[in-house]
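Summary for the lay section of the report: proteins are chains of building blocks that fold into shapes. Here we show the chain for TetR/AcrR family transcriptional regulator and then a coded description of the shape we predicted for it.
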Amino acid sequence: MTLIPPKVKFSKEAIIAAAFEIARTEGMDHITIRKVAEKMGSSIAPIYVNFKDVDELKQAVLLKIRDVSRQMLMTQYDPDPFLNIGIASLKFAREHPVLFKDLIMNNSRYIKEVQPPIGHILEQMKQAPELDGFNDEERMGILFKMQVFQLGLSVMDVTGMLPEHFNEERMIRLLESTGNDVIAAARLRKNGDLTK
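The coded shape description reads as follows.
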């Protein structure tokens, strides 16, 4: 009597993880059903059991990217809650450079689906003592200026445009000092000591 080995079952989570790895190393548009099956060492059948098509699988991957991003945002890299937002963004770009380039630099249609809710970021900003006295609109203005700076810094980092000695710690200190400058200017503007 010959024993037939049991069929390997692939969970939805395993399929998403394989597709995420493709997105992380090659970009979102490189996710195909066949490529995910090859990555898992399976036929395409288990994927179609769990997802109706590649677009549905990509949506699941986008949710995973959003979860990874949110988890990084919730990690305390620094005691300063506002600086922590910038550090999380820098770290995402450094740890997932292909994905970062794909989502940010390639004018990706996916970026809005993976960004954390702005309400969550505003709540985090409200915990930062240096932002006391600012209303939500003013905080949003500060955040936007810092996002412009942080994105530029991340792009320079992942494309190799920063000086070789410019390590992560130096990037964080630059982010911190720029944040302090933006906040100081916003406070002066709020007090009428600086024109718009």
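Put simply, here is one thing we learned. The chain has ten helices and no strands.
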